[in-house]
Amino acid sequence: MSRVFVIDTDTASDDAVALIMALRAPDVEVAAITVVAGNCGVDQACRNALYTAQLCGSNVPVFRGAEGPLQRALEDASWFHGRDGMGDHGYPMPRRQVETLHATDAIIKMAEAHPGLTLVTLGPLTNLASALRRKPDLERLIGRCVVMGGAPCCEGNVTPAAEFNIWCDPEAAHAVMRGGLPLELVGWHLCRGAAVIDAADIERIKELGSDLGNFAIECNSTAGAAFFEQTGEHGISLPDPVAMGIALDPRLVESSSNHYVDVEIRSELTRGMTVVDRLGVASNTRNRHIWEDLVKNPPNAKVHWSMNIAGWKSMLFELLGS
Sorting pLDDT into bands at 50, 70 and 90, what band is 293? Predict the structure, then answer.
């Protein structure tokens, strides 16, 4: 029996690769793609999602969602992904249109129709926060909620303190962290170093001779250049495919731990910071009086710290070559 996935995405270049992975996975049924503004505007993100599904030969329904964060103006990532989110290669308009139902309603509808489904979020958490507001008991219908977002205990990629998906709509992330969902946090720290698709990996993907593999490299060309400017690392960082890999096969995770995770929403300096007490310093008797209110809160997320990178890359190559 196929596992049912719903994917919430601000579809840009790395999101597109993650969508390919899910749509090509033999034991997964992607029941819906819901789209949120983030990397680019929501209409462009919808076109990107539809085009990617079309390349995979899939008619998965795509639902348009939030046009911007709950309380803030949208600051997109066009500087990283290109104006169209896909490296500005002039991809044609997709043949299909989005569905009429709003993405927030689609998330609820799909959860009710497929209790225990896996929800994978690849962008800002605006749609999910709105769904939780509309249906507070949504958590009882979700089997896993794999979130690509956050920079627990490491530097961010949009500010020194924050990763883009959380920073873009911190109020939504704050609400989701407190929403009771079975959260698994796949932070930016998992997507650097050896996880970067380097020159040898790029050549291997090209040698697959598949249209999907060539598309995956091409649409990430602008992102690869931006990643080098940002970090000094050569190659293509693929945060969303890393999260999708863990969603597809939890055995890729090598270490994780349960924590109370919260998101900073008041400070402009640390806006969107994912605060994780990895060492348990808040419960130390010398600190407890300062952090008492937070110490009382039980863990609300499983934070993944390391993964089998070779296994993830092997999965990626296989699915891109299908």
Answer: confident
Burial class for 274, CB neighbours closer than 10 Å (0-12, 13-18, 19+): buried
Instruction: Average the pLDDT over each of 158-172, 193-207, 245-259, 277-291 and give the range with the smallest value.
Output: 277-291
- Collapsed DSSP state (helix, strand, coil) of residue 301: strand
8 A C-beta contact, residue 55 and residue 20: yes
37 φ/ψ angles, rounded to the nearest 5 degrees: -70, 140
Q: How many domains does the chain have?
A: 1
The whole-number average pLDDT for the span 218-238 is 94
In contact, 135 and 181? CB cutoff 8 Å: no
Both structure tokens of 53:
């599904």
The sheet carrying 62-64 orders its strands as: 62-64, 28-35, 3-9, 117-121, 142-148, 183-186, 301-307, 253-259
For residue 276, give its domain range.
3-320
* CA 312/CA 320 separation, integer angstroms: 12
For residue 41, the surrounding DSSP H or E stretch is none
Residue 275 phi, psi dihedral angles, 5° rounding: -90, 115
Mean of pLDDT values over 191-204: 96
Q: For the domain that residue 211 is a member of, what is the CATH number?
A: 3.90.245.10
Q: Is the pLDDT of residue 137 over 90?
A: yes
Residues 6+ apart with CB under 8 A from 255: 304, 305, 306
Place of tokens 């960082």: 237
